Amino acid sequence: MQPRMIPSRPVTPSPTRRPRAARLVAAVGLAVSMAVGSVAFGTGAQAADNPYERGPAPTNASIEASRGPFATAQTSVSSLVTGFGGGTIYYPTDTSQGTFGAIAISPGFTARWSSLSWLGPRLASQGFVVIGIETDSIYDQPDSRGRQLLAALDYLVQSSSVRSRIDSSRLAVAGHSMGGGGTLEAAASRPSLQAAIPLAPWNLTKSWSGVRVPTMIIGGESDTVAPVASHSEPFYNSIPASSEKAYMELNGASHFFPQTSNTTMAKYMISWMKRFIDNDTRYDQFLCPAPRSTAIQEYRDTCPHA
């Protein structure tokens, strides 16, 4: 992001003409002052333009790395909490940059958080607070998982030990399989969310025309549990074009691609979350024009709206 320059105010000429040497010293001093001020202003202007921006400027290598620029810690959440089955919170240890956005993530049918736990520190190290939830029952359906995702977010910002680190206006959801179906349920019922990422989502409901939350759906080309033709693709198509949305289909991926470390999936999850939770337009470059890779079978999107 380029710093904005503020035109200098016109200087009223002095009626008394100073000696040439004095004028030269004054001019040099003014030039140095302006140069220093310009650097300082550039940093301040960037922060003023987007107070939610966190971390250094991204590169392809930085968003493909297994860890981002923030050191992280984690803490457990008891199964005795209300509204979901407990889980694990991952968070940046740095408090010097202010609060962070938060993401709740649900596992799929019969699965536990451990099946997705690699995602926790990976996303947190990019500047997010992440809660990976355990569901009330491993057999919970998408609508229940959607409610539990929202309950987990409410717990994060109201009761958790890291609540002071979170900006309650910048929240998002994600999930795998029925957790992905639950992600759509949560997005439809809480339009104030900043982002949603269903992973290989499964849901009997096919139309999500009411979703206004920026949503990236990631499907697997070889998924036989939630085939993209009857799940991810109709879900994506049903979301209005007026909403921010993207669909990425991973080349040759099965239904279980989120359960092992997946650089392509993580790279675009980070880019989407950064762009819409943090309003960080530095990540536009990774989302538009549409990414092309041998790992990606297909990509559709609306491109982030200006």
What would you note in describing this structure?
The chain has helices spanning 20-49, 60-64, 119-124, 142-158, 178-189, 232-238, 263-277, 284-287, and strands at 72-77, 87-92, 100-106, 128-133, 166-176, 195-199, 215-220, 245-250, 296-301. It has 306 residues and is of the alpha/beta class. The model is unreliable at 1-47 (pLDDT under 50). It has a single domain (67-301), classed as Rossmann fold (3-Layer(aba) Sandwich). A 9-stranded mixed beta sheet has the order 1-2-4-3-5-6-7-8-9, with helices on both faces. It contains 8 helices and 9 strands.
Helix % is 25-40%
**First-residue to last-residue Cα separation:** 15 Å
Q: What's the number of extended β-strand segments?
A: 9
Can you tell me the number of structural domains? 1
Keywords, separated by commas or semicolons:
disordered N terminus, 9 strands, alpha/beta, EC 3.1.1.74, AB_hydrolase_fold, secreted, globular, nine-stranded mixed sheet, FrsA_esterase, 31% helix, Rossmann fold, 306 residues
Brief overview:
The protein is 31% helix and 19% strand. It is an alpha/beta fold.
Task: Give the SSE layout.
Elements: H1 20-49, H2 60-64, E1 72-77, E2 87-92, E3 100-106, H3 119-124, E4 128-133, H4 142-158, E5 166-176, H5 178-189, E6 195-199, E7 215-220, H6 232-238, E8 245-250, H7 263-277, H8 284-287, E9 296-301
Parallel strand pairs: 3-4, 3-5, 5-6, 6-7, 7-8
Antiparallel strand pairs: 1-2, 2-4, 8-9
